[in-house]
Amino acid sequence: MEFSIKKASILTVAAALSFTAVQAQSLDEAKKLVQYERYSSAEKMLQPLAATDPLANYYLGVAELGQGNTAQARTIFGKYPSDAANMAGMARVNFMTGNKEDGMRLAKSVADMAKRKDVMPYVWAADAVNYGGGDAQQAIDWYKKALEKMDNVDIRIGLGDAYQRLPGGGGEAMNNYEKAVTMDPKNSLGYSRIGKLWYDARNYEAALTNFQKAKDADPSNPLPYNDLANAYYYVGKYDQALQNIEEYMKLSDKSTEDQVRYLNLLYLAKKYPEAIQGANELISKGTVKPGFYGILAYSQLETNDSANALVNVRKYFATQDPKRIGPMDYLRYGRIFLANGKADSAAWYFNQAVAQDTAKDKAEIYREIAEGFKGLKTTEGYAKAGEWYGKVVSETPNPQVLDYYYWGFWSFYGQKYDAAEKAFAQMAEKFPAQPSAIYWQGRVAGAKDAEAKGGGAVKYYEQWLAVPDNDAYQHKDAELMMAYQYLAAYYYNKGDKAKSNEFADKVLGIEPANEFAKSIKKANGK
Question: How many CA atoms lie within 13 A of 277 on its CB side?
């Protein structure tokens, strides 16, 4: 009987040790989830542990803070009011809710609990100050006190984060992150931090190298993809930002904030059908922001759903803070009215867009208005597009060659030939290396001389045809046909049969069945 009792005791102890090991492993996994900002997943893992483990309770509170739930975090930390970690958690709540005096008082009380063999209170106190928004130098001092007795990766990363908050602290931050990955070459978080520092320093090659190391060290770490998405977003490379946020979403908890960022990037990357679907899904789940209606309206505009675009842009203007409605919003409202056949309303909104644009260079907004009129695909719309490109040329400091070109091009198709003539003449003068300006001068002159009797287009076409083909410029068959046919008709009208036949033959060389060229040759007796 005594033997069986001892055997049972041994089994009980072994089971307890096994449970403790499993619990510790779960806590380590949950802690990593918190570090990777996967707060919802961490919360689910920590809830059963927090009932009996103060440290698990502390990380549960930190996970709530990561989700913005300060009131819930306060309640959680309050379950262990005399535990150092949870007291530090309460200090962090105070910092984050603006009560810095109580936050610092509590943090100092925690730091005072540190002992020779237990320096973790220094770390928890430093974390409270550092991540709660308190005095970064105080956090650094406490991290350094902990380092006097214990050196580990978490302290080094915390210390690096604190140095980053100081002006000029990037160098010390990098030193500590590099020590962290030296101590643990598989520490994905450290490589993520190093990559972000290099990116902020505009050393993009080093940044990408370390982001890749972070991915290789732990493929479950979503942070490198998040940092890359942010980096590409800030430089306007929305396609690359979208690619990385999609990888991030696969690994993250897909929080509401993540979904909103993803929606914005879908729109910015011009994935309009996907943006429409994403906005509708968020709205259907009860997550409604005024900007969603803007994304819906502007995406529907681009997908030719003008009726729904008008419904949603009205919702956007009705719900958005007026201070956040900018010139481009008025501009797109105008484009939506245009698409719905309401040109007068569109003009009012376009004028509002111009009036609200405080930039000295209004080229971008003028171009957008021009594109809106161009989208009507009518003679009147093309003429208006030409007018607005004309404004780009005449009213902005640095018009580009394409601005001159589109001023002339859309004026031509809007049958405003005098404006087109002026545009291409200025283009030819300002950009003499652009043969297309000469060609279009010929097209405009030809349009004004529809019967090819005045010869106004001859000098332009012949000058253009004399330009040799090269790597920079190639004569296109469609353009050659316009020139050859005009010249064939002009020389026929002039009675120069040889010249007329020469150009008719050139037409037939491109299009052997061309009836116009055949009729010219027949009339010339050929």
Answer: 5
Whole-angstrom Cα Rg for the chain: 35
Which residues are paired to 118 by β-bridges?
115
| 85 touches 61 (CB < 8 A) | no
In three-state secondary structure terms, 118 is strand
Instruction: Using the CB atoms, write b or e for 399-432: b if 16+ within 10 Å.
Output: beeebbbbbbbbbbbbebbebbbbbbbbbbeeee
Helix 188-200, helix 170-183: angle, nearest 10: 150
CATH of the domain at 462: 1.25.40
Structural domain ending residue among the three candidates 328, 358, 388: 358
Asked if residue 2 has pLDDT above 50, the reply is no
Of the pLDDT bands very low, low, confident and very high (cuts 50, 70, 90), residue 13 is very low
Burial of 16 (0-12, 13-18, 19+ CB in 10 A): exposed
Per DSSP, 68 falls in state T
Provide the whole-model pTM: 0.71
Q: Which of 332, 358, 384 corresponds to the end of one domain? A: 358
Dump pLDDT digits (tens) for 299-342.
999 999 999 999 999 999 999 999 999 999 999 999 999 999 99
- The residue segments making up the domain with residue 332 are 270-358
- For residue range 97-130, list pLDDT tens digits in order: 999 999 999 999 999 999 988 999 999 999 999 9
